[in-house]
């Protein structure tokens, strides 16, 4: 899945807004996802190694925000059900495996 330049910038903004809404720091997010702070920053900037990484972070943030009784900012490019995308490793996303 390739994003246009505009989609990339929009997705970065959506990640930042949802990070704020999650009320979590990058340190906490990294710890809860079992990865490094640097890796979370790379994902936030869409400087990724694996295409599943943004989906993992997206799902984590949305779940966290919803657990607070709040609404997440909708993701305009990372939308739909990831199970329907043949090119994504569903197990990696479900198990929140950020390598």
How would you sum up this structure, described in words?
It contains five helices and no strands. The chain is an all-alpha fold and about 100 residues long. The relative contact order is 0.20.
Count of alpha and pi helical runs: 5
**Which class best fits the helix and strand makeup?**
mainly alpha
Summarize the amount of helix as a percent range: 55-70%
| Low-confidence region ranges | none
Q: What is the rounded distance between the termini? A: 19 Å
Structure summary, number of beta strands: 0
Backbone shape: globular
Count of all domains: 1
Proportion of residues in extended strands? under 5%
Rounded Rg: 12 Å
* Element-by-element helix/strand order: HHHHH
Sheet of most strands: none
Mean of residue pLDDT? 94
Pfam family, one: DUF2316
Protein name: DUF2316 domain-containing protein
Organism: Vagococcus entomophilus
InterPro entries: DUF2316 (IPR018757)
Keyphrases for this structure?
99 residues, mainly alpha, 5 helices, DUF2316, DUF2316 domain-containing protein
Ordered list of secondary-structure elements with their pairings:
Blueprint: H1 5-22, H2 26-33, H3 37-44, H4 52-67, H5 90-94
Helix pairs in contact: 1-4, 2-3
Write a short abstract of this structure.
The protein is mainly α and 99 residues long. Helices cover 56% and strands 0% of the residues. It has 5 helices and no strands.
